[in-house]
Amino acid sequence: MRIFIDESGSFAYTDDHNAWSTVGAVVILDEAMGAAESALQQFKVENGFAPTDELKLGKVGDEMSYFRLLNRLAQLNCTLYGLATNAHLNTPETALAHKTQSAQGLVRHIDKMVHQSMKESILSVSEQVLRLSDQLYIQFTCQIQLMHYVVSQAVTYYVQVSPESLGSFVWRVDQKEPSRKTEFEDVFENLSPGYLQTLSMDDPLPRIEGFDYSHMAKYDCAEPTYLKEQYGVDVDLSDVLDIGRLIRDDIQFVDSKSDFGVQLADLLTSGLRRCLKKEFNDNLRAAAFLGRLMVNRGRGQQPLLLLSLGEEEALDKPTEGLVRMMKRQQRPMIKR
After folding, report:
1. What is the percent of the chain with per-residue pLDDT over 70, rounded to a whole number?
2. pTM above the 0.85 mark?
């Protein structure tokens, strides 16, 4: 399967109570790639752009054409996974506390490590976390949470309709500056493997009896004796994925101008943010069409992840109504 990721918003703290930022991932099966690209090209033409142009949501003149695009993608069995955070809640104080706790967690077992080189490597990563700006740290945290969410949800959804699609995971992430490697890309490359594996160990992928997971056997974790020998930690990894390999095998930061999948991720992630900020002409309809691309993640839970580094705050009534509409329109996780 192919996963395309982009973000929308600044992630920086502000006094604005409606300061939503979003990260989103669009999953497209290999057999749907051609039709998905055609749907995007048709959308561009409907808005007066050439099929080869890159069209941002802010330039879309026909809101209904955007809804038609979402509907076409849903018909192709594409799925959308989104995470939103309100920057107003991520104050400098809460960001620092969260960052400090995260850095301390990385070195929790450092005194039990045998090899000095490993100690120095872990310590270096911990120090890099502490040096991150609040904005970069929040963006990184959101993207890591999203990627874990994609793996846990998309595997369960697609194993039922296309188990062979679990044999490879192709990740394409929007590259902000094609001419150079950005600080975020460097941070992601250095920090993501450890963070993602920790999430996978804390919240293993559910496997449902009777479904065919054989195509992803290469991503199963081997029993690593080093956790016991070097950390003094006993961990049962029988149901844990080697999520680091699952992502590292084929991940690239790419220029969106040359990648239609990342362009779709940009349009859908921007659509989530615009909907939460209530900037569509018909926000309820936008929530409905976005929701039809999302997958149920459990009883009582909405499909859009909401993340706050500090205290959570109840959604205002209009925003709550939009999230509830997404939930109402979401697809069932288990197909009958």
Report:
1. 92
2. yes
